[in-house]
Amino acid sequence: MKKILTILFVILITHTSFAQKPDQVLARISYAFTHVRDTTQRSNPYTETMLLVIGKNASMYTSFDRINRDLDLPIANTAAILNAPFKPVTLVDYFFFANENKFYTRQKLVTDYIISDEAPKIEWKIEKDTANFSGISCRKAKAYFKGRNWTAWYAPNLPFQSGPWKLNGLPGLIIEAYDEKKEVKFEILRFDNLQEGNNASEYKRSFYFGEEVKFMPEVKATTREEFDKLYGAYKKDPLGFMAASRGVSTSSIRMGSSMTGTSHTVINNPIELPEKK
């Protein structure tokens, strides 16, 4: 416990500052995300609804399922939250600033942290093939990225450089993308063009449905090296880490169980694979 507190203190006092100018939100896109995390359970892939929020220069990629879960949580009843069944959701957000070629990751370990990461560099090869997805005219592009051979269908008439996850850099919004083994797939579900007045009023309570792409005001900026030290302490003793961070005893920390009966904690096929040598 003392070691965990020491690590927390060091991280908190050594964080650096990363400032990016907020960008007006122009559109919100939801995607169906499918990932065969466990190759021994190919018939039961991990699924999640994701959200891409884009402006002229910046984008933010997050979990739509997590937004809905958090809006539904009975905030006043902490014990109920800790013991409640859960649906696995992605806890990481990605921010991409195209003009500055800057990429940031938001990760939460009790506290929200913003981490400066290397901007993904994808060498896309645009092909002649065309297709239509839900009435959207698309062109085909291929690339090798993070250990996988990717195919992406993008819309030249929607001139946004961002896409789901870390798939950025095409001259149009990515409508669908998948690797050659179809183990990871992103499929567009809905495109809301805010310039045409579409705004989901039911999500007004959510930070992710604000008018600007920006960092949460409460986040602490840090480096990847510092965050990895913090995450290492968490992995060694999750209950002790959470108790130390909250200033409570480990006996007061409870972990919920999966509402689906499948936790998807076995990941022998991560989305990022070792690069080919």
Record keyword descriptors for this entry.
13-stranded mixed beta sheet; 35% strand; alpha+beta; 277 residues; 13 strands
Describe this structure in words.
It is a single chain. By secondary structure, the chain is an alpha+beta fold. The chain is 18% helix and 35% strand. It has one domain (2-252). Strands 1, 2, 3, 4, 5, 6, 7, 8, 9, 10, 11, 12 and 13 form a 13-stranded mixed beta sheet that branches. α1 runs antiparallel to α4 and α4 packs across α5. The N and C termini lie far apart (41 Å). The relative contact order is 0.22.
Summing up helix and strand content along with how strands pair, one would put the structural category as alpha+beta
Helix percentage range: 10-25%
Instruction: Name the average pLDDT.
Output: 81
Count the E strands: 13
**Low-pLDDT regions:** 4-17, 74-84, 250-262
From the N-terminal CA to the C-terminal CA, the straight-line distance is 41 Å
Strand percentage, roughly? 35-45%
Count of domains = 1
> What is the CA-based Rg, rounded?
20 Å
Report the principal-axis shape.
globular
What does this entry show, briefly?
The protein is 18% helix and 35% strand. With 277 residues, the protein is an alpha+beta fold. Strands 1, 2, 3, 4, 5, 6, 7, 8, 9, 10, 11, 12 and 13 form a 13-stranded mixed beta sheet that branches.
